[in-house]
Amino acid sequence: MPFLVAFGVLGLFMAVLVVGSVVAGAVGTGLRRIGVLKAVGCTPAQVVRAYAAQALLPAAVATALGLVAGHLLAVPLLADTAQVYGGAGLGVTVWTDVVVAGGTLGVVALTAAACAWRAGRLRSVDALSVGRAPTAGRGRRAAALAARLPLPRPVGLGLARPFARPARTAATAAAVVFGTAAVTFGVGLSASLGEVVAARNHNAADVTVGVQGPATRGPGAPTVSARTASAVTRAVAAQPGTRRQYGTALTEATVAGASGGVPVLAYDGDASWGGFRMVAGRWLRAEGEAVAATPSLTAAGAEVGDTVTLTVRGTAVRVRIVGEVLDTSEGGMRVFTDVSTLGAADPDLTVSGWAVELKPGTDADACVTALDRALEPLGLGATSTKYVNGSDMARVMDAMTALLTLMLVCVAGLGVLGAVVPDTHERIRELGVHKALGMTPRQTVVLVPASVVPAGLVGAAVGVPLGLSVHGVVTRAMGRTAGLRLPESVLSVHGAPLLALLALAGTAVAVLGALLPAGWAARVRTATALRTE
Known about the structure:
Elements: H1 2-28, H2 31-39, H3 44-85, H4 94-120, H5 124-128, H6 140-148, H7 153-160, H8 166-201, E1 207-210, H9 226-238, E2 242-255, E3 262-268, E4 278-281, E5 289-293, H10 294-300, E6 307-312, E7 315-325, E8 335-338, E9 353-358, H11 364-375, E10 381-383, H12 392-426, H13 428-436, H14 441-450, H15 453-481, H16 488-491, H17 496-523, H18 526-530
Parallel strand pairs: 3-8, 5-7
Antiparallel strand pairs: 1-9, 1-10, 2-3, 2-6, 2-9, 4-7, 5-8, 6-7
Helix pairs in contact: 1-4, 1-8, 1-12, 3-4, 6-7, 7-14, 8-12, 8-15, 8-17, 12-17, 14-17, 15-17
């Protein structure tokens, strides 16, 4: 739910922004038409009604199409959800359709009315003028400064343009802010889910040894005798490429506050390097210590530093909780301790799986071959294949994250397009003058995207921190809904190179959104651009 809400809120803000920007641009480019209406006697109120109706007609059609598309996308997803949870058929409620349609048309009507009212109050002669220069002084200092920069002239002219139209530049920057925030959030969420899956697998070992390859993972796993376990440990240690190893034994215990049996994984050796992500405290180091996941601690009413009693085969074993680990297997209801801690309660407990870390440069396949040869008489085998216990939910969320992020990036590009198109139309006479003075179509293509680069840089600079904040809040909320606390390694997944790339991606969205009107401006003939009627 936090995941869906975050994307929903970002999508709503961007939808309102794009709708408002497009409608405002459409009214802005119709100033001459408004001047004609005023010249033939229309009042400002009549102009407002005319433009509100003109904007609502295509908006109503688009809203209807959007509702149909939304239902087509939602119905199969809700059907799958109902099947997973065993509930009745789900559907989009009528009030949702009413709110969506009313909200969309309301934004269109208000934006059109506000822009038309402002334009309707202009003098007829001002509204009729075509290719009016910006307000005196607006952007001229920026243009003078850009002219002194060691940049190609089209680039300088483009960089100065945002200062002549600050409101439109702000709309472009806002579109880039939300687009960059969506990408930052989506990339971070996908990386965090990957970290959670990696923590779930605990598969940092280069080679694993067991009856069927990987170390034991759950109740009912095959066991080996104490003599066989000792022989395996010696065989692994005898390999020249072995750096370190630990064994895993599995039993079950009851804990006060937890219903049913709780799986207990006991380790023979130092398992701190095995891929465990600590939320708090440290990994166990000595007999009588244990670590546990958040759900098991919550069920027992314990926290790091408390002593908990495990009942193993009818014998009470007191352990001190020294760490809280991120673990989602068995619903997070597992406890991790040392084999020696359970020795008195379960004297028959033996190691049934081994994790091996190799020295740098060691050939894992050669090591596996040698171990298989040594362990074949014992009925055991080795493998270098990583144990992967994926999550269907994580895969679904990765796919949804990619889809929703792509959609929001497209919406951000449309927001930039909605701001650049009317701006290009307004300055077409200015572009005609440049063309008459020798500006080539290629230089025109450079000029228009350059005009959105400042807004893109500012938007990216704001959007990346916003996306980081959304990622942190939503990821923590998702952990809480699953009864988990997340370690810093799951939350801090944006490295400096990735942040720089995301900032550049935000600017790239702005430039891509400006390419279509840039191509149109480059193709316009000079005589057409200079025409004033």
